Amino acid sequence: MPCKQRLEAARNQTQLAQAKVDAIVGRFDNSGKPAAGSAEWTALCDGPFDAILAIAQQAQDEANTQAEAMRAASFRMLLASGLGLTLVIVFPVLLR
Predict the structure, then answer these.
(1) Cβ atoms of residues 45 and 13 within 8 Å
(2) What is the pTM of this model?
């Protein structure tokens, strides 16, 4: 899933969870009784976390892929440079 879609999903889930939290908070009446059960509240608050973490995990995967591509390109450049240096050193010796 593209990162933009993950971002929209996380935003939607967060907004939905926030609307539910606002509704629960709106039911506070100073009676001393909880407006929601602890399990319900925890599930509500934790609901958007997976979608939010999916964004970070995808970003990490993309960063790892980019780093691996850069490492591979750098290694190829190192090999080419090493070969060039070897030829520069060896070629004059062979011409003697």
Answers:
(1) no
(2) 0.66
Check if the beta carbon of residue 35 is closer than 8 Å to that of residue 25. Answer: yes
Q: How many CB atoms lie within 10 A of CB 19?
A: 10
Tens of pLDDT along 52-66? 999 999 999 999 999
Structure tokens that stand for 19 in this block? 């609307």
Question: pLDDT (tens digit, 9 = 90+) per residue, 8-19?
Answer: 999 999 999 999
Domain ranges, residue 27: 3-95
Alpha helices, H only, 27-48: 38-46
- The closest of 52, 50, 43 to 20, measured between CA atoms, is 43
